[in-house]
Amino acid sequence: MPEHDGDRASNSPHGVGIPNDSGDIVQTIEQARSDGHTHEIGGENDGSSHKRPAGMGALLTVLGVVYGDIGTSPLYALQSSVSIVSSPKAPAQPWEIMGLASLTFWALMLIVTIKYVILIMRADHDGEGGIIALMSLAQRVCKSQHFRWLFGLVGIAGTCLFFGDSIITPAISVLSAVEGIETAVPSASHIIIPLAMIVLVGLFSVQVLGTGKIGKAFGPIMVAWFAVLAILGVKGILLYPHILLALSPTFALEFIIMHGYLSFIALGSVVLSVTGAEALYADMGHFGRAPIRKAWLFFVLPSLTLNYFGQAALLIHNPHALSNPFYLLVPHWAQIPMLILATFATVIASQAGISGSFSLCRQLIQLGYLPRTRIMHTNASEEAQIYLPSLNWILAFGALVLVLSFRTSSALAAAYGIAVTGTFLCTCVLAMVVFRRVFKWKTATVAIVFGFFFIVDSIFFSANVLKIPDGGWVPLAIGIISTIIMTTWKRGRSLIAARQQADSMPMGSFLARLPQSRTIRVPGLAVFLTANPDIVPNSLLHNLKHNKVLHDHILFVTVQNLDQPEAERGHRAIVQELAPNIHRVIVRYGFMEMPNLPRALLELNALGVAFDAIQASYFTSHELVVRSRVPKMQLWRMWIFLLLQRNAASTTEFLRIPPDRVVEFGVRIAI
């Protein structure tokens, strides 16, 4: 085999797409437009968009999907915080409990309400939210390549911590709910771990069905959950009405001043009350700002505040309730029904995190940070509902290992906070850039506003760093390993793209020689997939070498992955005629979209370019990567890259090309 690259690109998902530097494609597009020989297409019904729910339906869906994680924090957050300053011989004093309740309330106000709901949610990228969208927006407005790389690394670090969070959330949520058995039926405490594992296995097993079939039930269940939280909170507050004074930040400041270093440790548990705040921003593209904001301000925030204050009042009234203040707020006769409702709520909370991981992984694949993997669509009419089998069972394995290792939700809480606060920090850094460059805030304003939140996030993160020996190493390890995998894949694809560029034949030279060649032309349509539209794909050269023929009609197709959520309507593909019956086609997809190449190419018929999906033959290359004599990648990273490449899904499956229409040539490449 010749020692050069095939038809794939570095930041494409181990397949056809754009090179590491998309400038080649951009220049090609601009040149073609200036020549006036291009047509742009993209139908209204290409399946790239999704409709947002509206009205009460939107509010119900938001409650079921967005607020599951933060809504189940009362199961363990305040208990974990008070345990820092309490012991069997010296229970927490009322002023200490009021201080922690005040810290919890103001954490909800500062981090969730002001930072995310009011500020961060303004920074949408074409309507989409989440740290990947924020990263892409920051990179787009950054002129320096160095800073683009730096902001990309910040975004990837936050994303990797989110994956760690997605493993811990199902484990701690389900475990904290099932622990209610110990309060309701003390003699059955030995079944907590087995039951939690059964619930988790069931949760991950039904992912293949998709959220669509059970999504309609999520909203009403969470409405009931938040209503019960509020009612139980009022019941607890009546035991000690003075707890409402803790709404004042003076109690939080008094706790910090009086306890000093111990208050710093307590902040590591207080932050558990805001876990899930990132989901408000991440799911903005599905529901819009308004429903998320209204649900938080008028229902979720009041319910959480009442419940936290109710638990605090109960602990002041009965210090022995610290064993499980949430369930001890519940009347004894209602503890079993509450256990069932809590289990449903934690499953929903876990479902939101798992679905978010699927969506995030798809975005990273589209942006070229991860290799292709098998993606199943669980709803024929909804593009966003997907299932990734490999990621699903990685998350399941991680959650089960955590349950077996930590065994209690209070122990697992040590591993939880560092992932959340790390993501907060990364989001804050990227938001500084976006609000300065996109919203044109003054430098002083950005420094004051986001500098304050950066300090707050740093304090929370530093407090959780103290938990590293007790379990905080878990999300850090997951984040570091994930970052290494992503940067290794990106680097490997970049090296392949560079080798491809060095060994390529310019498209202009090929087209100039074609009329004088004696190549036999055969009937049919050939689609040659190429990463760079200005060079001849190696699959074509190999076809000429082995088969000695060319088809009558030829399409050179490049799939360009954009750093925006969706391709603009009417601009899905750019078509340029290079020679009679030879066309260049650049098909563009955003990082929130799933490629469907045959569907996109069908649009060519509207421009008079004949395309028959049944008769078309697709030509691509399969790379056999080996180390060059002067390797440009360390041996251990090369091993990781080759492992990822071997397990990547095929181009056929990822682009939804019928496998019986594909001709693949092997190409050896040394890097």
UniProtKB/TrEMBL annotation:
Annotated catalysed reactions: K(+)(in) + H(+)(in) = K(+)(out) + H(+)(out)
Superkingdom in the source lineage: Bacteria
Alphabetic keyword roster: Cell inner membrane, Cell membrane, Ion transport, Membrane, Potassium, Potassium transport, Symport, Transmembrane, Transmembrane helix, Transport
Residue intervals passing through the bilayer: 58-77, 97-118, 149-168, 188-209, 221-243, 255-274, 295-316, 336-365, 386-406, 412-435, 447-466, 472-489
Location(s) in or outside the cell: Cell membrane; Membrane
Chain segments carrying region Disordered: 1-23
Record domain K+ potassium transporter C-terminal: where: 523-671
Domain K+ potassium transporter integral membrane, residue spans: 60-511
Pfam families xrefs: K_trans (PF02705), K_trans_C (PF22776)
Signal peptide region: none
Bilayer topology: Multi-pass membrane protein
The family this protein is said to belong to: Belongs to the HAK/KUP transporter (TC 2.A.72) family.
Function description: Transport of potassium into the cell. Likely operates as a K(+):H(+) symporter.
Protein name: Probable potassium transport system protein Kup
Gene designation per UniProt: kup
